[in-house]
Amino acid sequence: MKVLLDTHVMLSLLRRDITQRYPAIAHQLADPATIGFVSVASLWEVALKTRLGKLDPGLPLEEIVGYLEALGLVILSIEANHVVAHLTPIPATRDPFDRLLLAICQVENLVLATVDRALADHPLALKA
After folding, report:
1. I need a labelling partner for 101 at 20 to 30 A (CA). Which of 40, 52, 75, 78 fits?
2. Rg of the chain on CA atoms, in Å
3. Which letter, b or e, does each residue of 72-109 get, where b requires 16 or more Cβ atoms within 10 Å of its Cβ?
């Protein structure tokens, strides 16, 4: 299974509390058949909020990419086809980062590991 982590799940990995906070997602990511992905969109969101003083990611920004790659996650760039994709169905959220993550899932044939209630019922969300 190919799984894109939403920003909350990625932050939980960075803070090293995913097993306690989201055990079903941690179990899925530990499965050798699972390939985990993180989008540059999530990295961008974390960097913006950290620099505004609204977020502590648990690691210095400069170390995040290396840490995620060391965990075996693939970093996905934001591509033009992700941005212009017609997302169906339209999610309940109006958050542009969440919508972009779902569009990436749609284009790249991934499922979104999310704990966001506005996204959990979307067909592209991982069913835990």
Report:
1. 52
2. 14
3. ebeebeeeeebeebebeeebebeeebbbbbbbbbbebe
DSSP 98-120: HHHHHHHHHHHT-EEE---TTTT
pTM reported for the whole predicted model: 0.95
- DSSP structural state of residue 125: B
Structural domains of the chain in order of their starting residue, each with its CATH number: 2-113 (3.40.50.1010)
| Cβ neighbours, 10 Å, residue 58 | 16
Backbone angle region of 58, left / alpha / beta, with phi > 0 → left and psi within -120 to 50 → alpha? left
Judged against a pLDDT cut of 70, whether residue 128 lies above it is answered with no
CA distance 47 to 65: 11
Take residue 125 and report the two structure tokens written for it.
């969300």
Per-residue pLDDT reduced to its tens digit, 26-49: 999 999 999 999 999 999 999 999
Residues in the chain: 128
